[in-house]
User: Fold this.
Amino acid sequence: MSNIQEELNALERKHLLRQLTAVGFATSAHIQQDGKSYLLFSSNNYLGLANHPVLKSAAISAIETWGVGAGASRLVSGNCPLYAVLEAALAQFKCTESSLVFNSGYTTNIGALGAILKRGDLVLSDRLNHASLIDGARRSEGTFRVYHHKDVSHLEAMLSRRRQSQAAVIVTDGIFSMEGDIAPLPEIVRLAEAYDALVYLDDAHATGVLGSHGRGTCDHFHITSPKVIQMGTLSKALGGFGGFIAANRLLIDYLVNKAGPFIYTTALPPSLLASALAAINLIQKDDSFRKKLWQHAGYVRQKITALGFDILGSETPIIPIRLGSSEMAMAFSRRLFDEGVYLPAIRPPTVPSGSARLRISLMATHTQEEIDLLLSLLEKIGKELRVI
Ligand SMILES: *Cc1c(COP(=O)(O)O)cnc(C)c1O
Assistant:
């Protein structure tokens, strides 16, 4: 047993203490805290769908039909008919044979990686992968190794050194969640094919955002390879909650039988299935949300770079501003907060030490005036704190 108070004190001294604050939502670009309204730049609700009327009414009518809870796990009696409809839609959206919905993106990664990786298997993970991938891979029976961020030569060296009989899975984010850059998927898939490995692609941030109609990183690079297992969430651009795997039927049948975090938990509330289905249908019919998001992203990346900030190679609507120390990132974030902008600092261990940052995530629902206000505050506070 550790000294709990002392550990918390130590985190506070290092500016690494994390605390929960109540956040009320008014519209998707504004939040309320302690009775004050703030302009929000830290939500993954990229397309503004979390409070879209079409999703809300789909969820409400599912509640009227099926109630608020599923009552049991999917293999017992919780498998609402909406699951089959949603899974068919997700498979079609991701251009795969089949798909399987889990209760969250996090448990998708824990469950799928845990089921796929066997003792002695090699799991090769990008150094900047999301914590849920690292947790999933480390808790599995596989042997965990890390390659340098997006470094395909390093990855190839690791693949070529392995024993011939050793199975290997390459694990990568599609869009890296704290950097906003995109994985070199064509090269990774080429290596997977050359060295007979699988690719586990976490498209939490790419689903709804990247590729035609937001189909994700495979679509963006025009990749259709049976070597790729695609994972996504219903919780970010799709506006609701839940995770999924899109892959061939055989793998899906296997996960239904072997993934503990799928088997031993109550099914999702039917309202979330209904809203996810409405989201998938909406973004395939109407590309205007995504177009607006990318228009904002191009503008903000260009302006912030011109101000002299380091955006760490961002290519997407996730735009980090590297500040270095946790203390500076906290000070910058607090100043923005004083000015009415909500943009929390991202600190270690979420990001490597010495690379604390602000992480802007844009939404289609931000207005040009709101974005210009953010840019003028970044310039003002950046100069005041002498980081530009
Ligand atoms: C958010 C996130 C997850 C977890 O998804 P949830 O649905 O929020 O549990 C997994 N992977 C990545 C890369 C993420 O950013």
